[in-house]
Amino acid sequence: MRVVVRAFARLKEELNADRLVLELPDEATLEELLHRVLGKHRGERIMVAVNKRLLPREELAQVRLKDGDVVDLMPPASGG
Amino acid sequence: MGVRAELRTRLSPIGAVVEELRASSEEVGAILVFLGVVRGVSRGRRVLRLEYEAHPELAPEVLRRLIGEARERHGILDAVIEHKVGTADVGEPVMCVAVASRHRREGFSALRELVERVKHEAPIWKKEVTEEGAYWVEERGGEPFIELVSPVEVSVNEEVSAQELIARLGLRAEDVRIVREDREVESKALLRRGDRVKIVPARVRPSSASSQRGE
What we know:
Structural class of chain A: alpha+beta
Largest sheet of chain B: 5 strands, antiparallel
Structural class of chain B: alpha+beta
Strand content of chain A: 25-35%
Radius of gyration of chain A: 12 Å
Order of helices and strands of chain A: EHEHEEE
Number of strands of chain B: 15
Number of domains of chain A: 1
Order of helices and strands of chain B: EHEEEHEEEHEEEEHEEEE
Radius of gyration of chain B: 22 Å
CATH class of chain A: Alpha Beta
Shape of chain A: globular
Largest interface: A-B, 17 and 29 residues
CATH topology of the largest domain in chain B: Aldehyde Oxidoreductase, domain 3
Largest sheet of chain A: 5 strands, mixed
Strand order of the largest sheet of chain A: 2-1-5-3-4
Distance between the termini of chain B: 62 Å
Number of helices of chain A: 2
CATH architecture of the largest domain in chain B: Alpha-Beta Complex
CATH topology of chain A: Ubiquitin-like (UB roll)
Shape of chain B: elongated
Helix content of chain A: 10-25%
CATH architecture of chain A: Roll
Strand content of chain B: 35-45%
Oligomer: heterodimer
């Protein structure tokens, strides 16, 4: 299946792309995607949205992705 | 009653926001406004400008949710949040949080809470462009990314200021000191390629860093 990843702010610069299209095995989890995209940054407290729904931290480990999902990866908020 | 939460390239004049809230209901008895502006000095560095980026759909949605929750929790009547996106010069207003309430008490509580929550929960990010370089500003919930428990020696392989080296390692400036040839280095000092420096936990004095390892 194919999943679109969008990166914002610092993550966009670190990944050197604001948009990636990933080919993942069916039933892949969000965890697997984070591991693949972020690698060593995995421990970071990033914000994640799937299809523009911001996910509570405790839900991150349970999410299964499906074809066509759009996953937004965002650094911790620093507005104001 | 309405709720307005917007990302803007330029904030509305504060008078217009106050008027909007004043006219929103006859029940209004207090209007409180917080206006954040770009500081010219940040952590000892001269700031040239800030660059704001936000998630275009999620940021307004989160801001609206925060206003809704403030209404439920504090009983305020109405609120407006405007947040800057794009490049902001020193002195420029970048965040406006305004609250209309029946009485001052719930207005103050709601305003304080809203300002904090906007800064920590809305998907909005700022990059500080200073005379020494540009940095994404990020708070890690007040906790350093890693904690240094004993001195480490590092070899510098590209020119970098002491404070930037500390930041890149995910450490907090106040938690560590940098020592080069047995002398403490100022945070603004430039480290050169090939420099060997020791990063020492702040609670260990630099002059005796090596002998106190096992303290």
